[in-house]
Amino acid sequence: MEAGYLMRRLYVAVIIVVAVFATASTGEAADYRTRNFLVQAPNAQLARTVGDAAERYRDDLSQYWLGRRLPPWSSPCPVRVVAGNLPAQGVTTYNRSPVRDFQMEVVGTPERILDSVLPHEVTHTVLATHFGRPLPRWADEGIATTVEHPSERQKHEHKLREFLRTRRGIPMNKLFLLTEYPSDVLPMYAQGYSVCSFLIEQRDPETFIAFLEDYMKHPSWTSNIQKHYGYDSLAELQDYWLSWVADGSGPVEKFAKNSALPTNSVQPLPQAIRSNPQPGRPIGSVASNATTATAPGSTAPGSTAPATTLASTEPGGWYMRQKREAGKQPSNDRKPEAIASESSNSRLMPPSVRNNPRYMSAQPQPEQGMSRPSSIY
Q1: Which of 47, 57, 84, 367 could form a disulfide with 122 if both were Cys (CB 3.0 to 4.6 A apart)?
Q2: Compositional bias (Polar residues) at which positions (predicted)?
């Protein structure tokens, strides 16, 4: 009898302790509502900071890319903040037709969430709202990466050279036609970021958006790259881009094909992200011993060839094989729907665009999944 009484008292005590901890845990989490965002974060201060920053990014980045501020959304975008000593990553989903009901998750240290993940994900929402449909994958992720913190962009610069050296680069005529994440997704991020930077730096952000708008209306990359940047084909763009990367991804003037086009006219970043260097500007030279480039695809005499030059000039290299087989390549003007990208069960892979009613844009990290194994909401 006494044993039963003690057990009942112990049971009640356990329930009280669990309830106290549950209440404390719930009390620590906080929501914060702004005009366009509804933030859920571990504490009230972080929720407010993320919410206010998201609004500033939305206004400033839309002004930067589009030349105007977006009108308010009909319903706020839920933002789930997972803060801790975690790799910086994020995911944004939305209904495609029509584009609406954005949902977002941002993961990482508070510092990296605020200076990289949040502006990256907000850029996805700005672009989707403006275009009313998903962008080509390389452009969607490439543009969003240009507004990240220098340390995050530096990772893509280093990875790009690794991918080119190990033959994991993507030919331009395949990169530009991707409608889904490829099975080997990280090269797409690094190369998409680099190509976006290369083109944006030649003109300005609004010209790059106009380039994409024209493609949406008239889906020929060849004619649009000629119109806006002066390159005769994606193959020629690839040659000039490779030479720029081999030269250290620095100033683009000598790699701009059309000398009649104004160059180096990139406007300053919005004040909200002014601490980051301009999109497209290199964070120092990551190509060791790089010298002034002489011509697309060539290396100056006596110089130590960077990884990208080796990748593009070795007889058995990937880019040389692509050049030899250029005559066999399918037309660059095929619509994106004509390209069937590879599928994968990798944890880094967001759901297929075609197989999921909600479109997803995500920032993967090597050997890391999102904080939830499936769609975030």
Answers
A1: 57
A2: 263-278, 362-377
Q: Where are the domains of the chain?
A: 27-134+353-377, 136-344
Place of tokens 């990296």: 112
Condensed to tens digits (0 to 9), the pLDDT of residues 288-298 reads 323 333 445 44
Tell me if residue 130 falls in helix, strand or coil: helix
> Structure tokens of 284?
């120092």
Given a contact cutoff of 8 angstroms between Cβ atoms, the answer to whether 152 and 244 are in contact is no
Closest CA to 181 of 367, 374, 364: 364
Structure tokens at 276: 């980051």
| pLDDT tens digits, one per residue of 219-277 | 999 999 999 999 999 999 999 999 999 999 999 999 998 755 555 555 555 655 555 44
Give the Cα separation of 156 and 145 in Å (integer).
9
**Reported CATH class of domain 27-134+353-377:** alpha beta
pLDDT in tens, 96-126: 889 999 999 999 999 999 999 999 999 999 9
d(C-alpha 248, C-alpha 162), whole Å: 14
Sequence-ordered list of residues with C-beta below 8 angstroms from that of 245, at least 6 positions apart, any chain: 160, 161, 164, 194, 287, 306, 308
Report the sign of the C-alpha dihedral through residues 24, 28, 34, 39, in that order. negative
Buried/exposed 264-301: b ≥16 CB within 10 Å, e otherwise: eebeebbebbeebbbbbbbeeebbeebbebeebbebbe
